[in-house]
Amino acid sequence: LTQRQREGRGVTLDIATAIAILAMGIATYATRVAGFWLVRHVNLSTRAMTALDAVPGAILMAVITPMVFTTGPAETVAAIITAFAAFRLPLLGVAAVGVIAVVLLRLAIG
């Protein structure tokens, strides 16, 4: 145990950390609001709308791909199973298949 834990003191929050968290929250909110405002006031071509429709999947892949290559065999196999499920199921079903696959494979493989 650390001295802080032995003395019973709780977690403290540095003012600089609190300001950084608040600033990140404001920046995140501002980019979301700006995106909605921009889409409402700008006429987008069909091509641009198609590109914007692909963004959520691209972001999801950017987050998941490093995990597939840097974790254990259970996660890698679960990612492959999930990729095959993506050809047949809607997004929510694919997410469920992925979660179930990784849980079961972690139990089976370790």
Describe this structure in words.
By secondary structure, this protein is mainly alpha-helical. It contains five helices and no strands. The protein has helices at residues 3-7, 15-41, 46-70, 73-85, 91-109. Helix 3 runs antiparallel to helix 4 and helix 4 runs antiparallel to helix 5. The radius of gyration is 21 Å and the shape is flat. The two termini are 29 Å apart. The model has no long low-confidence stretch (mean pLDDT 86).
Instruction: Report the sheet-strand fraction.
Output: under 5%
Radius of gyration: 21 Å
Mean pLDDT: 86
* H and E string: HHHHH
Note the overall shape.
flat
Helix content estimate: over 70%
**Counting H and I runs of at least 4 residues, what is the number of helices?**
5
Q: What is the strand tally?
A: 0
Largest sheet data? none
Q: Which structural class do the helices and strands define?
A: mainly alpha
Q: For the terminal residues, how far apart are their CA atoms?
A: 29 Å
What descriptive keywords fit this protein?
mainly alpha; 110 residues; 0% strand
Summed up:
The chain has helices spanning 3-7, 15-41, 46-70, 73-85, 91-109.
Walk me through the topology:
Elements: H1 3-7, H2 15-41, H3 46-70, H4 73-85, H5 91-109
Helix pairs in contact: 3-4, 4-5
